[in-house]
Amino acid sequence: MSKNTTSLSKHNQVILPSLFLSTEEQAYSFSAQVKQASINLGFDSFQSSLISLAVSEITINAVRYANGAKIHVYKTTNQKGLSILVEDTGPGIKNIKQAMASGYSTHNSLGLGLAAAKRTVDKMVINTSSKGTAITLTSYLPIPREVIDIGSVSFPKMGEYYKRDNFCIKTYQGECILIALFDSYETKTNVQAALLLINTFINEHYDLPLKELVIGCHRLLKGANYTRSMDMGLLRITPSSAESLIVGNISITTLLPTSNPIQKLSGGLGSNFPPSLIITHIKLSSPFCFALHSNGIDSVSLPKIDTLALNSKKHAEHIFDNHARADDDATIIVIKSYE
Predict the structure, then answer these.
(1) CATH 3.30.565.10 assigned to 3-140
(2) Is pLDDT above 50 for 110?
(3) How many CB atoms lie under 10 A from the CB of residue 249?
């Protein structure tokens, strides 16, 4: 039993019996079992199919080029998803970077390649050497709307077809959320490329600490020689707490009482970067409600509306209709828990 298997078996509930796969038929059959197990766990048919496809690619490659593989399927430690460990004793992957390149595929497999397989799951970890390869695929269940509900509205200023605002919402580990809202002051020629650069980075590195995310985005903008700054607000919500980091003219507001005022730092990303970064930590109690908005929203106050009476989408629409400015891009994101 390998170190990878031992680590899983001590802490994770088995979903399917471990099995050694030596033929393509066994690999396809086991992938179908993984799909059904995913559905039984609570994944929808589409996500279950994606998980099954990723397992097919990895196991068939192992059968063809490593004389088979041992496969283990477990619940994640937090019981919010499943992990699939595929272990072989083949020659290893000589060039992981090449193997992970988009479009790279091995001979007559399903054609997904490792890069595409990685995109179908939440996390893929590869450990390889001349003695074999262990690949762990992990997917998490979506957070139910009755646990955390998110709604957003975002439009460019009147008369424009593009926005300088952009946002990213990442749910992960079946219980955590990162919301990033950013507003670029770049030239019209460069603004969309700058927004895409930052959006891609956050989507790939969403689980980094907030300070590292902001520093990484700042360095990317500097390295790309963009001349104007970008405002950014980050909010991370976990089962017991929340934390935020704001640089520039983004606002994060708690719409239900809290003892922690959310701090905002002057400056920007790409230029005029603040000398130090300050994170606001918030202890959560249910119900809670947060609003993130760009400077195209003047206020989030709705005195005649009960905060918990609306779902997040309707709440965001009411704020937008009452407080969005016509002469600026306007983005509002509402996150709430009703429990």
Answers:
(1) yes
(2) no
(3) 15
Tokens representing 187 are 């030239």
- 130 CB neighbour count, 10 Å cutoff: 9
pLDDT of residue 109: 42
Domain layout of the chain by residue ranges: 3-140, 149-337
Q: Which of 31, 26, 28, 20 is nearest to 137 (CA)?
A: 31
For residues 286 and 240, is the Cβ–Cβ distance under 8 A? no
Task: Choose which CATH entry (3.30.559.30, 3.60.40.10, 3.40.50.2300, 3.30.565.10) describes domain 149-337.
Answer: 3.60.40.10
| In contact, 141 and 41? CB cutoff 8 Å | yes
Indicate the pLDDT class of residue 2, thresholds 50, 70 and 90: low
Please check the confidence at residue 103 and state whether its pLDDT lies above 80. no
- Cα 152 to Cα 2, 102, 255, 293, 320: the distances in Å are 46, 31, 15, 10, 9
Looking at the chain, how many residues does it have? 339
Cα angle: 271, vertex 208, 226; to 5 degrees: 20
Residue 326 φ/ψ, nearest 5 degrees: -80, -20
- Summarize pLDDT for 12-36 with one digit per residue, the tens: 788 999 999 999 999 999 999 999 9
CB-based contact 258:242 (threshold 8 Å): no
* Highest mean pLDDT out of 123-132, 181-190, 301-310: 181-190
